[in-house]
């Protein structure tokens, strides 16, 4: 490990940033240096601008991915090198505003029914029943399942925040069945790693969950782009359609800002149908029959 990488890692750890953020930031600076074939402390704003253009035009990255790269470089220059750069020299790309993909209830049923294995099925059930993130799923421990209070404890989720999510009776029965038949039986993590380099004391890899959801979507013949986060969006939208208030959904999802949760208003059929189109108030005659062309 180089001295620069070690110094950056220490700065990241001092701020208690998540392992995912730490990994992304370190890799971003490494790729930046590799592109110019120079040590990153020998580079500056001119190279950053060139690199941003390269990420958009050559690597075809989206605004969110490029924004992560810029955030990593901004952290490196400001915190590791102690050379903060003005915002105009490191502009963050404007992110497009897109509504998330949501599955209907019937599509969720098809997804669950087409899981490739009982293990994949319980992953999908848990994601949809709780609205938790993929990384939160793989780090669930057996002790996080509180059947007495019918909640699941999410420990240090996104933003290093704890929260509780609902534990439905149906999911509890499914989890008990999974635990009874698992071989070997989980001891620490609810979904332990099973690969050649993993053991029961290590969590499952998030990529396995991602692949399981995509495989189920393909088997179900769903035309939509489906990934684990799609189930989180579907959970929130279906709750809203069932009458849950936004603040409750905000707490369940772990959103810091209600504005983030309010986007589900744009996806809820109940809210979309609550107001009639002004066209319906017009007193128009029935659709005239087309005239024969002369």
* DSSP strand tally: 3
Major β-sheet annotation: 3 strands, antiparallel
Structural class: mainly alpha
Q: Unreliable stretches, pLDDT < 50, 5 or more residues?
A: none
Order of helices and strands: HHHHHHHEEEHHHHHH
Q: Estimate the global geometry from the Cα principal axes.
A: globular
What order do the strands of the largest sheet run in, or round the barrel if closed? 1-2-3
Return Rg in Å. 24 Å
> What is the CA–CA distance across the termini?
83 Å
> Kindly state the mean pLDDT as a whole number?
87
> Total helix count?
13
Task: Give the % helix.
Answer: 40-55%
* Percent strand: 5-15%
Overall description:
- The protein has helices at 3-14, 19-36, 45-57, 63-80, 105-113, 118-130, 134-138, 169-181, 206-220, 228-241, 246-253, 258-262, 269-272, and strands at residues 145-146, 151-157, 161-166.
- The protein has 294 residues and is mainly alpha-helical.
- A hairpin with a 4-residue loop joins β1 (145-146) and β2 (151-157).
- α2 (19-36) packs across α4 (63-80) and α6 packs across α10 (228-241).
